[in-house]
Amino acid sequence: MRTFFFVLFGYSMDIYQLKDASILISGGAILLAIYLIRFVYIKLVSKIDLMPELVLVPRGLISVLLFYNLPASLKVKGVETGLLFVVILGTSIIMSLGLLATKREKTEAKTDFI
């Protein structure tokens, strides 16, 4: 089911929107805000281990579903599929790299202990 939604999202997206610098800058600002808020929350409120919880911020299927369920009267001009794609792709890449780095750190810690 998840794959079906991402296929529909891919077909509905205009790939040339990614050439627009304002979309990339807005997407980067949203990513920065997401991770900054999450960092502050983890450090000050929940006080748990920072990694891998910091990078576990999936923004995929639910974002696409919410985006498509918005009525036209509530949609904000400038927030289109390109911006949503930048945020989803950015969080996916950061999550993948963060989990790989965390796995390597734990593997190295185990080998150092032995």
Concise account of the structure shown:
The chain is 69% helix and 0% strand.
Task: Report the strand count.
Answer: 0
Name the helix and strand elements from N-terminus to C-terminus, one letter apiece: HHHH
Amount of beta strand: under 5%
The helix-and-strand class reads mainly alpha
When the domains are counted, the total is 1
Specify the helix fraction band: 55-70%
User: Between the first and last Cα atoms, what is the distance in angstroms?
Assistant: 44 Å
Main sheet overview: none
Global mean pLDDT? 77
List keywords for this structure.
69% helix, mainly alpha
Give an account of the 3D structure:
- With 114 residues, the chain is mostly helical.
- It has one domain.
- Helices cover 69% and strands 0% of the residues.
- The chain is built from 4 helices and no strands.
- It has helices spanning 2-12, 21-46, 61-69, 81-113.
- It is elongated and about 50 Å long.
- It starts with a helix and ends with a helix.
- The model has no long low-confidence stretch (mean pLDDT 77).
Fold topology:
Layout lengths: L1 H11 L8 H26 L14 H9 L11 H33 L1
Helix pairs in contact: 2-4
